[in-house]
Write a structure and sequence with these properties.
Blueprint lengths: L2 E4 L2 E4 L3 E3 L3 E8 L2 E7 L8 E2 L12 H16 L5 E2 L6 H8 L2 E3 L3 H5 L2 H6 L10 E3 L3 E5 L2 E6 L1 E7 L2 E4 L5 E4 L2 E6 L2 E9 L6 E3 L18 H14 L5 H10 L2 E4 L6 E3 L4 E4 L1 H6 L4 H25 L5
Parallel strand pairs: 6-7, 18-20
Antiparallel strand pairs: 1-2, 2-4, 3-4, 4-5, 8-9, 10-11, 11-12, 12-13, 14-15, 15-16, 16-17, 19-20
Length: 309
């Protein structure tokens, strides 16, 4: 059996039947099969593959796979690819933007995510992705992505991007922002080569008695309404329920704004320190923005995907 290798994963060239995907390639990691992806023409790919269980991929492997597909499509002269699967999620859209140019925005791509997941849709989402692969430069603590200059970097497990609200890449500087100010400078990269030239530096610890405190139910209920406005529209009702019902706790999360735990959510206490002095309405909006991605992931992992198991 011959394998294609991308970062830490290997993909079988053999096509095998799969209950969800139909014809598929097995994906291996550390010598064992972890999931599968829909079969594609590797010499001239014309579709974005569907990964049956993307959460099982090791960190960074999905992005490396998509970039390799973009490179192959570009070499073959394929003008654009489409996704024909049940999970057009915000996370997939953002991963695709690293290696493709999209013909529509995230809201358009994700507008039918719940319906498509529930019916295991295999028709194409009407959004075209033109191949625009990046050049990946490895360094001792992660990698950099060069395309139109230095566009993104992973340092110590944190992804920094241009224009991001929290983990920002400004020129070659990787920093964490809360509110309108820098919380921590983490690293610096050469903007021309992507080489790491300084860092990584650990973020400051949060020394505040609020760490460990839970949000009162009234605040969770108010946040639930705000989060429901930020997540993809089909997930709004579920987001409202999830945020209202689960505990939310202030925590020191290092370089992350929020995190999903086994029973609830955590948000970075630096948001309280930096944003609360500017008013509770601004704090509520910042909390909703921080929680929206992890709430979306929770709904897809716990509500949608089990229905298709």
């Amino acid at each position: 059996m011959k394998l294609w290798r991308f970062q830490e994963i290997a993909i079988s060239r053999d096509v095998v039947p799969h209950a969800l995907l139909g014809e598929a390639h097995a994906i291996e990691h550390a010598g064992r099969t972890i999931t599968a992806m829909s079969a594609i023409d590797w010499d001239r790919p014309t579709r974005i593959p569907v990964v049956a269980e993307p959460a099982r991929l090791p960190p960074g492997a999905g992005g490396a796979l998509l970039n390799a597909i973009a490179e192959r499509a570009a070499r073959a002269g394929v003008p654009a690819l489409r996704y024909a699967g049940p999970y057009p999620t915000p996370a997939l859209y953002r991963a695709l933007l690293r290696s493709f140019r999209a013909s529509a925005d995230e809201a358009t791509f994700t507008c039918d995510v719940l319906d498509r997941a529930l019916r295991l849709a295999r028709d194409e989402v009407p959004v075209e992705f033109a191949p625009a692969p990046h050049h990946r430069v490895e360094h001792a603590h992660g990698h950099a992505e060069l395309r139109d200059g230095l566009e993104a970097a992973v340092v110590g497990g944190t992804r920094f991007e241009r224009g991001a609200s929290v983990a920002r890449l400004d020129g070659g500087v990787c920093s964490i922002w809360f509110g309108d100010a820098t919380w921590a400078h983490i690293a610096e990269l050469d903007t021309a080569t992507g080489a790491l030239v300084a860092g990584p530096h650990p973020p400051p610890r949060v020394d505040d008695p609020i760490v460990g405190r839970a949000f009162p139910p009234e605040l969770r209920a108010a946040l639930a309404e705000l989060v429901a406005e930020v997540v993809p529209a089909p997930l709004a009702a579920d987001a409202r329920t999830v945020v209202s019902a689960r505990p939310i706790v202030w925590a020191d999360l290092g370089t992350r704004a929020a995190r999903r735990g086994p029973t609830g959510f955590q948000v970075h206490a630096a948001l309280w320190a930096r944003v609360a002095p500017h008013g509770l309405s601004r704090l509520a909006l910042a909390l909703a923005e921080a929680l929206a991605p992890v709430v979306t992931s929770a709904i897809l992992a716990e509500v949608v995907l089990p229905l298709n198991a």
